[in-house]
Amino acid sequence: MNKVLEKGSPTRFILIFLALFALFYFFNILFFGITIPGHHYSPFIAQHFDYIRLLRHFLLRTTAKILGWLGYGAITNDTDILIVGHGRLKLIYSCLGLGVMSFLIAFVIAFPGKLKSKSLFLIAALVVLQTLNIIRFIVLAIFWDKNEDGQIVDHHTVFNTLIYMIIVVSLYFWVRRADSVAVSFTKKEARN
Question: By the 8 A CB rule, do 11 and 4 touch?
């Protein structure tokens, strides 16, 4: 049993990853539930600690600013962006990427490696993730017609599939790099 849970063990990594992912994922859902008016609403938490509202605000304002630079008029409120001549996008909870971020953060924290490498990779990956999310909103704002009949493709599914593919490829190269650094470090120690 000790070998299964020793540092660097694949089983330990999987258990920590799954526990952290569940913790982050369900914490976000719980937090969302207490920051919107309704059954378990907490005005204090909603007013002072609502990181979900801040993320939505950042995504909406950044999208509107870039659309403005591209020559499109756009206005926002707390949950929507209205693009002149193109319609409206509503950023609901699933648009924010919190589930994807929970997966990514849990994986990086659970992976045995140096804190500096993990921190740099995580920051870069989160910035890329939200940059791609903003690009998605811009493309949807300009080209998507939600009133079009016979729409087969759900943009959430397409985006999530694309993002998970990018994350898997990124994690693969990051893990390979971390392994090669660990191997070269071990060889240096063996020579000394």
Answer: yes
